Amino acid sequence: MIRVLLVDDQPLLRGGFRALLDLEDDIEVVAEAGDGREGLALVRRHLPDVALIDIQMPGVDGIEATRRIAADPALAGVHVVILTNYGLDEYVFNALRAGAAGFLVKDILPEDFLHAVRVAARGDALLAPSITRKLIDRYVTQPLHTGAGPEPAELTNREREAVALVAHGLSNDQIADRMMISPMTAKTHVNRAMAKLHARDRAQLVVFAYESGLVTPRGR
């Protein structure tokens, strides 16, 4: 059973998302909150698999809530998905850098919304190749890496290759095909890279790959 927490300051939207989720046999909404502060308390109480958090709320917003969840080792199993009205923008990118697994635009189709919740619960990033390219082109091309974090040299050659392929939006099966290894081995390379880089999920691997210079956007 996938356990979901909803955090949004708009009761109508929150109720709509809950109605969709409640119809699914494999998904349970464990709690909902109207602001980030309450949401954080409920995350710590219920330890959901997926926390759907609105990015813009009064008080503690989605970025700050994501940052606090990512910083708490007790919440390592919570996958944050940002809810936004506007698609990929600077706020969403900052949430990804803070530790969000991905983001959803609020006018998403119901079937895509449900699929995204299941993807996030598996620990996969909600970053399709097209979204990854937009993220790279609009934000990661700027010199954001400070040098204070882990460097690519800490990875093995195979781990570096796997991270680079993740940064291009490939799934584990596609990485396995490209590297001519089994999907399980591909997953192992990705998981070990995440552990070494202290990345919560694949979205952070994408950000790291470009900020560190492991992968260079086309045209640079």
From TrEMBL:
Tell me which residues make up the Response regulatory domain.
Answer: 3-121
Keyword presence, Amino-acid biosynthesis = no
Residues that bear 4-aspartylphosphate: 54
Keywords of the record:
DNA-binding, Phosphoprotein, Transcription, Transcription regulation
Q: Which segments constitute the HTH luxR-type domain? A: 148-213
Q: Which residues form the signal peptide?
A: none
Q: Which InterPro entries match?
A: CheY-like_superfamily (IPR011006), NreC/VraR/RcsB-like_REC (IPR058245), Sig_transdc_resp-reg_C-effctor (IPR016032), Sig_transdc_resp-reg_receiver (IPR001789), Tscrpt_reg_LuxR_C (IPR000792), WalR-like (IPR039420)
Q: Does the keyword Zinc apply?
A: no
Q: Which Pfam families match?
A: GerE (PF00196), Response_reg (PF00072)
Under what name is this protein listed? Response regulator transcription factor
* Organism whose genome encodes this protein: Microbispora maris
